[in-house]
Amino acid sequence: MTSDVVTFAIEDRIAWVHFNRPEKRNAMSPTLNRRMMDVLDELEFRDDVGVLVLTGEGSAWTAGMDLKEYFRETEAEGLKGVRRSQRESYGWWRRLRWYQKPTIAMVNGWCFGGGYGPLFACDLAFAADEATFGLSEINWGILPGGGATKVAVELLPFRKAMYHALLGEPINGKTAAEWGLVNESLPLAQLRDRVVAVCRELLKKNPVALKATKDAVRRVGVMTYDEAEDYLVRAQEAANSYDNDGRREGLRQFIDEKSYKPGLGAYDT
Ligand code: ACO
Predict the structure, then answer these.
(1) pTM of the model
(2) What is the SS3 string spanning 48-71?
């Protein structure tokens, strides 16, 4: 199914989502950000989707925010326009960070600035050796906003994060992998096969456990050890109960059999 600036296709339970403005190097315009949220919404709970891959058409993954449509044109609308376009972009990145299914960034080419938002939002990231990454904000006179500085500090050691942000020098996929911005880098011609292989491994796993695990990895980073230990015990218990046959039976007796009312008492075990 096609929606203009974002396209997707589902093959063997893998949803391939494409940034699709190759003529603008897949820069994220307000229109693209709105479409992406719709596409994520449509795919998230489909039974025929077990993993989502985000990639780009043409030579770019994404050249970051659209400097004309996202910055200049929304700034011309005043604060209201600026805040709206921020909500739209940050909104789908947040949605992706906590997505129900595992997500993979398949970085086929240019990845700059605002692109670090969806890069970090994806659980795993694989890049072409030929890809180019950069915090280019400093090169046109702003700081790496929209979470980009946070992404650099989350993923890179302090000195590398600082150098990357202050110098605005591009790095290739190999360096991005060495630094930890992505999991792996490999020649572009091999990138898709490697991502498919990873997807197939993920598709063999229990989906409830996958969601609990990806959330746990993101959550525990800011917790003390004891808080993390407590959170993880409870997250596992929550995952157990999510698949609990008893809970399904309770729903069945209320909705189908109409034999009890949960507000007034318990179902018959
Ligand atoms: N915003 C708006 N338009 C863009 C962007 C962008 N981020 N990136 C590329 N485009 C447009 C160009 O203006 C050009 O449009 P035109 O054909 O109407 O003139 C078209 O896409 C093709 O771009 P070229 O520069 O001709 O493509 P090339 O392959 O030579 O270079 C590159 C690609 C390196 C990505 C270059 O376009 C570039 O530097 N883009 C800006 C990258 C950037 O710094 N992004 C902002 C990061 S900061 C942030 O996101 C907050």
Answers:
(1) 0.91
(2) CCCEEEEEECCCEEECCECHHHHH
